[in-house]
TrEMBL record:
Lineage: superkingdom: Eukaryota
Lineage: Eukaryota, Viridiplantae, Streptophyta, Embryophyta, Tracheophyta
Residue ranges annotated for the GH18 domain, each copy included: 26-366
Family indicated by similarity: Belongs to the glycosyl hydrolase 18 family. Chitinase class V subfamily.
Stated name of the protein: GH18 domain-containing protein
GO MF annotations in UniProt: chitin binding; chitinase activity
Protein keywords: Glycoprotein, Glycosidase, Hydrolase, Signal
Signal peptide start and end residues: 1-23
Biological process per Gene Ontology, one example term: chitin catabolic process
Any single GO CC term annotated in Swiss-Prot or TrEMBL for this entry: extracellular region
Length: 366
């Protein structure tokens, strides 16, 4: 190489490196949920930078994290399987979830000894099953003591992860947590400084604002905007930033499922229409692929509301609020413009031939 071109070459190399490290710092993620029955090998991992394997459990007697025996085969091969299509995708073992008992986490976090059991067992489990990280899904720490203990847990987890990395010589495990939509859980504040220091990022669950089991009217279940209310993704993200968590540690969550209501009157079929309970499934939750089948089968009318950033469809007395491509695009664009670290979806197996995952990746510019 001629000496004159060397500086140019080095500059280029430097820029390329900057570019690739910026790429690694984005999170374009989805959870895979074992109960969905969706085969891990069918995940199009090329559309994601990170995949969460959900869920590991917490044993309330031992305070150790465990993988249920029925999940062991899929979980232990998860990383290898998803890396077949995308060798650089990173995987995190997610612990807890909406169906886990919050009191088990509360009990574990309340004593130094049980926090240590949780932490040590989680790290061992992540390493022995080849995950790149751990994700805590405690729904939710719900009083000030629990929030303080949640903060202690994160701080101690971070110290242990760093020391394990020094001992083993391996890259430190990633640490994330799925958190409530806003920086307070019904006025009880999260310990935002411990959250910032302890975690690589937070997954903000900006959905389930309205649903047929707790809303007597239809509503935009995962609105990005809903002025004058706290029921929106933008409201929640703003509270997290105001609480002091940097935008580039925040990942915006959206659902690959909707909520179905049974309308009180078929001719009153907009937002905030009176409803009499769930439709389609027991609780009214319905995956995106199923929503598309419902629309096709019933010739349902499907609309997008750009004020809320929410899709909805209806046929007869069945009304579904959900995120279609327009909503996903608008949310990803919002995340990007606000300088957030990225986005995640719950859950991969509910997508319809990867339409939403692909839409999200392309809106991010991936
Ligand atoms: C928080 O909840 C725990 C367990 O439910 C309870 O033991 C504790 O006293 C509560 N603390 C406060 C401050 O309410
Ligand atoms: C969205 O829905 C709300 C409530 O029905 C309505 O006021 C608003 O005009 C709609 N926005 C758009 C763009 O359709």
């Amino acid at each position: 190489m001629a000496p004159k071109t060397l500086p140019f070459f080095l500059t280029l190399l430097f820029l390329l490196q900057l570019h690739s490290s910026a790429g690694q710092n984005a999170v374009r993620a989805a959870y895979w949920f074992s109960d969905s029955g969706f085969p891990v090998s069918d995940i199009d991992s090329t559309l994601f930078t990170h995949l969460f394997c959900a869920f590991a459990g917490l044993n309330p007697q031992t305070n150790r994290v465990f993988i249920a025996s029925g999940n062991q085969a899929q979980f232990s091969t998860f990383t290898r399987t998803v890396q077949q299509k995308n060798p650089s995708v990173k995987t995190l073992l997610s612990i807890g979830g909406g169906d886990a008992k919050a009191t088990d986490f509360d009990g574990m976090a309340s004593q130094a000894g049980s926090r240590k059991s949780f932490i040590d067992s989680s790290i061992r489990l992540a390493r022995s099953n080849n995950f790149h990280g751990l994700d805590l899904d405690w729904e939710y720490p719900s009083n000030t003591t629990q929030m303080t203990n949640f903060g202690l847990l994160l701080a101690e987890w971070r110290v242990s992860v760093a020391s394990e990395s020094r001992r083993s010589g391996n890259t430190p495990l990633l640490l994330s947590a799925a958190v409530f939509r806003s920086s307070d859980y019904y006025t009880i504040n999260y310990p935002s400084s411990a959250v910032s220091k302890g975690l690589d990022w937070i997954n903000v669950m900006a959905y389930d604002f309205y649903g047929p089991r707790w809303s007597s009217v239809t509503g935009p279940p995962a609105a990005l905007y809903n002025p004058g209310t706290t029921e929106s993704g933008s409201y929640g993200i703003t509270t997290w930033i105001q609480a002091g968590v940097a935008a580039n540690k925040i990942v915006l969550g959206f659902p690959f499922y909707g909520w179905a209501w049974k309308l009180a009157h078929s001719n009153n079929n907009g937002f905030f229409a009176p409803a009499v309970g769930p439709a389609i499934s027991k609780d009214g939750d319905v995956g995106y692929a199923e929503i598309n089948s419902f629309i096709a089968k019933n010739g349902a009318r499907a609309l997008y509301n750009s004020s809320f950033v929410s899709n909805f469809c209806y046929s007869g007395t069945t009304w579904i609020g959900y995120d279609d491509k327009e909503s996903i695009s608008a949310k990803v664009t919002y995340a990007k413009n606000r300088g957030l670290l990225g986005y995640f979806a719950w859950h991969a197996g509910a997508d319809d031939k990867w339409a939403l995952s692909r839409q999200a990746a392309s809106a991010w510019g991936a």
